[in-house]
Design a protein that fits this description.
With 82 residues, the chain is an alpha+beta fold. It contains two helices and three strands. The radius of gyration is 16 Å and the shape is globular.
Length: 82
């Protein structure tokens, strides 16, 4: 994560949610609920975790954060009563 709004939100509230929509007809997928458990700012570790590799971080880029989460709950995207 860059130091933008999502990261700033996590610094004040460690909870996060993610909606995963599966391909296909209708609304199939999951709602995932997380709690931030730790983070790392080591550029080499962050670069090793990225799908798209870029050149070394430039001085003008914002600080990067690798954020680790615990999955608290997984619910259906629709129709889940819990």
């Amino acid at each position: 994560m860059n130091e933008h709004l999502s990261y700033k939100n996590l610094t004040s509230n460690p909870k996060a949610a993610y909606l995963f929509l599966e391909e296909g007809p209708g609304y199939n997928g999951k709602r995932l609920y997380f709690t931030k458990i730790r983070e790392d700012t080591n550029a080499e570790i962050i670069d090793s975790m990225k799908r798209r590799k870029s050149s070394k971080y430039s001085e003008t880029e914002s600080k990067k954060h690798l954020v680790y989460f615990r999955v608290d709950k997984v619910r259906a995207l629709t129709g889940d009563q819990s």
